[in-house]
Amino acid sequence: MLQALNSTSSSSFSKLFASRSTLLCFFQLSISSNSKKMEEHRTPSAVQANLDSRSGRKSASLSKSSLNTKVGQSSSLSPIQRCRSPQSVESQRMQSSPKRAIGASPEKHPGSESEGPFDICIPANKGGVKLKKSFLESNREKRKKLESPAGQHLRPGMVLLKKFLDHMDQVKIVKKCRELGIGSGGFYRPGYRDGAKLHLQMMCLGKDWSPESRSYDKSRSFDGAVPPEIPEEFRKLVDRALNDSHEYTKNVEEIPNMSPDICIVNFYSNSGRLGLHQDRDESEESLKKGLPVVSFSIGDSAEFLYSDARDVDMPEKVMLESGDVLIFGGHSRHIFHGVPGIKPNTGPEILVDERTKLRPGRLNLTFRKY
Ligand SMILES: O=C(O)CCC(=O)C(=O)O
Ligand SMILES: [Fe+2]
C-alpha cells in the first residue's frame, strides 16, 4: 500500500522512506529537494477524519535529552513532502518519475514469499554470521545501560521505558517470534494496495492486519492462515510496561490501560525502514479512548521519528535501542511516526551469538487493542 519517493536531495536524510499506513486511508511519503512543505493528497473523507481526530491538540513540548532531540538540531533533515495517495495519483507519480518511487525498486529481503515464512534467526545448520563485539564495544554497552534513565516522558501520552526488557526477556521474545514466525501465519513481506512492498517482514498475532486492505480480520486473506495467539508472557510484559509508564506520567489517565488483542511483529533487516504514518485502523472506540500502542524494540537500534502534525517540517526523534519499550496513547495516540533506518550491529551480542542467532536487524512488536 505504500510508497515513498526517493530524494535527489544532498541532505543527510535523503534516504528513501517507505511509508506504511495503518491509517483509515494511506499516504505516501516523499522527500523533496526544493519544497519546504509536506504535501498530502488524500480522499476527502480521510481529510475530514484526520482533521477531526487532530482538532484541538497542541504541539507537544520537546524533551532535551540526547536521546530525544529535534531532528533538525542534530542532523540536516531534508524537508519532507508526504502524500497519502489514491491509487490513481500513485500510478501517475510512478509513471512520471519511475526512479523516485520506492515501490518500483523491489528490495531484496532474505526469505522472500516463495521460500516460505521468513526466519528471523539463522538456522542452526547454516553456520551464519557471528558478529562478535569488541571488548570496548561491550563495555560501552554496559556503561550506556548504567547511564540511561529508566524512563522518559517524551510528551503527553508518550513514555519511553529505557531497557525495560532485560536480555533474557529479549532472548525469549526472539525465540518465540522465531518459532511462531516460521509456522503458519508467520512472517511474510507485505505489500500495499498498489503492489509496492513494505521494507520489512511482518507477522500478526491475535488478529490479522493487512496493509493492503488496511483492515483487521480473523485470518489472512492471501493464504487463509489464522494468526497465532499473543503469548501470555508477552501480555504480562505489556501489562508491566503500562504500569511502569504511570511513574512518568502526570496521572494514570494520561496513558489508559490496555489489554492487547493484536500484536504486529515487524522485522527490519539492515536496509529496512518504515515511513511516517499513523496507527489508525483500530476501532473507533479504541482510538477515541486513546488506548495506547505499546512498542517493544529488540536487536539493532533505530531512530524513531514522530510528529504531532502531518505538515511539520522537522519531526522529533528518539533512538530506540534493544529492550526499550515505547508507549504512545492518550493525546499521543495519533502521532505520525516512522523508522527511517536501522543502525547496523548495535544490538546486544547475546541476540546474535550462537544462543539466539537473530539475523542482523531489528525486531519490533507493537501491541494494540482493536
Ligand atoms: O518499528 C517501529 O518502531 C514502529 C512500528 C510501527 O509503527 C508499526 O508497526 O505500526
Ligand atoms: Fe505504527
Automatic annotation (TrEMBL):
Biased composition (Polar residues): 68-98
Fe2OG dioxygenase domain mapped to chain residues: 259-370
Domain of life of the source: Eukaryota
A GO MF term: broad specificity oxidative DNA demethylase activity
Keywords linked to the UniProt accession: Dioxygenase, Iron, Metal-binding, Oxidoreductase
Cofactor(s) essential for the protein: Fe(2+)
GO biological process entries: oxidative RNA demethylation
Protein name: Alpha-ketoglutarate-dependent dioxygenase alkB
Organism expressing this protein natively: Dendrobium catenatum
